[in-house]
Amino acid sequence: MIRVLLADDQPLIRSGFRALLDLEDDIEVVAEAGDGGEALALARRHLPDIALVDVRMPVMDGIEATRRIAADPALTGVHVVILTNYGLDEHVFDALRAGAAGFLVKDIQPEDFLHAVRVAARGDALLAPSITRRLIDRYVSQPLRTDAGAALKELTNREREAVALVARGLSNDEIADHMVISSTTAKTHVNRAMVKLHARDRAQLVVLAYESGLVVPRES
């Protein structure tokens, strides 16, 4: 059973998402919050698998709530998915850096929304190739982080290749096809890279790949 926390300051939005989720046999909404502070408290109380968090809320916004959830050792199993009306703006970018597993635009189709919840529950990042393109564009004018590049030296060549493919938006199966290895081996490369780089999830691998220069705009 996938346990979900809904955090949005608009009751109508929360009720709409809950109505969709309540129809699914494998998903349970365990709590609802109207602001980031309440979301953090409820995450600690209920330990959901997924926290669907609006990026803009009173008291504590979604970015700060995400940062505190990601920093809490007791909440390592909580995957935060940011909800936004605006696509990939600077707030979503900041949320990904804070530890979010991905983001969803609120006008998403119901079937895509349900699929996304299940994807996030598996620990996969909600970063489609089109979103990755926007992330790359964000990095064009930013200097590389030398500490991020140094961290990549801990990886094997195959692990670096896998991280680069994650950053391009590929799934484990697609990485396996590209590297001509099994899906299990691809997943192992990705997971080992996450451990070595202290990445919470695949979304953080994407951010690190761009910050280190492992992936540059012309490669996507």
From TrEMBL:
Keywords per UniProt: DNA-binding, Phosphoprotein, Transcription, Transcription regulation
Keyword DNA-binding: yes
Domain Response regulatory: 3-121
Residues that bear 4-aspartylphosphate: 54
GO terms under biological process: phosphorelay signal transduction system; regulation of DNA-templated transcription
PROSITE patterns: HTH_LUXR_2, RESPONSE_REGULATORY
MF (Gene Ontology): DNA binding
Organism superkingdom: Bacteria
Domain HTH luxR-type, chain residue ranges per copy: 148-213
InterPro entries hit by this protein: CheY-like_superfamily, NreC/VraR/RcsB-like_REC, Sig_transdc_resp-reg_C-effctor, Sig_transdc_resp-reg_receiver, Tscrpt_reg_LuxR_C, WalR-like
CDD domains: LuxR_C_like, REC_NarL-like
Protein name (record): DNA-binding NarL/FixJ family response regulator
Organism (species): Streptosporangium sandarakinum
